[in-house]
Amino acid sequence: MSHVSLRAVTRVYPARSGQAEVHALDPIDLELARGEFFAVVGPSGCGKSTLLDVMAGLSAPSSGEVVFENQLVKGVPPGIGVVFQEDASFPWLTVHDNIAFGLRQAGTAEGEVAAQVRYAIEFMGLKEFARAYPAQLSGGMRQRVCIARTLVLKPRLILLDEPFGALDQQTRLLMGDELLRLWRETGATILLITHALDEATMLADRVGVMSARPGRFLDVIPTGWPRERDSTIVSSESFGRLTSRIWTRLRGESIRALGRA
Amino acid sequence: MSASSIRILLVAGLVALLEILCRTGVIPNFTVIPPSAMAQSLWNILASGKFTPDIVATLTNVAIAIAAAMLAGVALGTALQGWPAARRVLDPLFATYYAVPMYAFYPLLIVIFGLGDLPQVAIGFLLAVMAVIINTLNGLDRVPPVLLKAARVHRLGPLAAALRVRLPCAAPYVFTGFKLAVAYSFIGVIGAEFITSSRGIGYEISFAYNNFDNGVMYAMILFILLLVITVNMSLHAWEKRLLARRRRA
Q1: Quick one: pLDDT band at residue B248, thresholds 50, 70, 90?
Q2: Does one domain contain both A63 and A47?
Q3: How far is CA A22 from each of CA A11, A18, A42, A47, A49, rounded to the nearest angstrom?
Q4: Taking the model in full, what pTM does it have?
């Protein structure tokens, strides 16, 4: 049985003054198995972030339904963690308190909070910055704070919206490795939205290629990687073949999206 | 020379000038007494403890006005920010609020609250609360949408989201409201004490004025000046410390 299902989900933004209504998502069907790593690529403005909002229960679908662990999603259900594209760190809290935020909200005992936060801080390489405020960190480090804040809650479904967009290429590869390690350790289901084709190919079990707006899946491509994998697969022969297959599928859509912009 | 040392020199120069003008008789002593005499008189008054009950009464009323304005202002501002329809109705009224001379309502406030401390507190509160409401709204309007999403992902209800995300994020703006509330509460309370009251710093200044007691009058004026300057400088320093951690290093 699937962990998350989207059944004929659409999302229409109603017309506003001077603007016609926008169909962000065409009917989308998607089934994610428990523990699967699914990546979504698509031209900019194709409704990737809308898809994430609807899956997280942050916005309701205009029609169709989202089911998470056999429950219809209405509002954000427990067990879902989201890492946003924009910096969502809390500027009034230290790195430590940012990461502890959700645990404290859940009423976790303070000793347990301290232990978990310390582990997450080390895992994310933020050890020297535990007492720093986000304003004193680089964009990439702030994003790591947000990732840590999500992960300490041990979500069973993790939704990531271009989380590594602010990072340089080397750091991205290493963060990708960390994400894979974490995915294996926790057994969480992951949906990763990215504009980097190589990132999608390297990390995911399946890559969904979205069309220009209104977004729908043109193709879902299984990568066939073993569960034990890391960034060294980027140099393998099948990596190049997969990436170029995804790009072939995406190229026309990207041109369409550009031409319209 | 730095701006702050020029400022100190400027103030010291003006005080020295006033001292000379008073001592040489250019300004007669029944109009203004020399600053040194004000300080001497203030020292004697504070040492004698004669006006301590008045000072305590004023400070207590100011503190109550500030606390009430902060509580009501932050609560109303937060409620209104989440209720755009009501806000659209009230916004034009907010804009004209400070055009209303609040002291005109003093007789009404006495009818409602009697002759005790409450009318003074009410004037201070009325002057202060709007500054808190407006600055709270302003701060909450600027909370980045992604932080509101983060609050929802953490499954915070509306109240928890306000207390744990929206208001902390808006804190620098709320603090501006707080600074204004402090200033307006002093203005409101001490001003009201001038009109009808039987105690307080404002009352004592007015009483001394009516009895040609320049020694007491100027001493108490000096006291208010020093008090307000000290309070404002402390708030400013506190604000700077709070803001430092939120700015890029």
Answers
A1: low
A2: yes
A3: 9, 12, 17, 10, 14
A4: 0.86
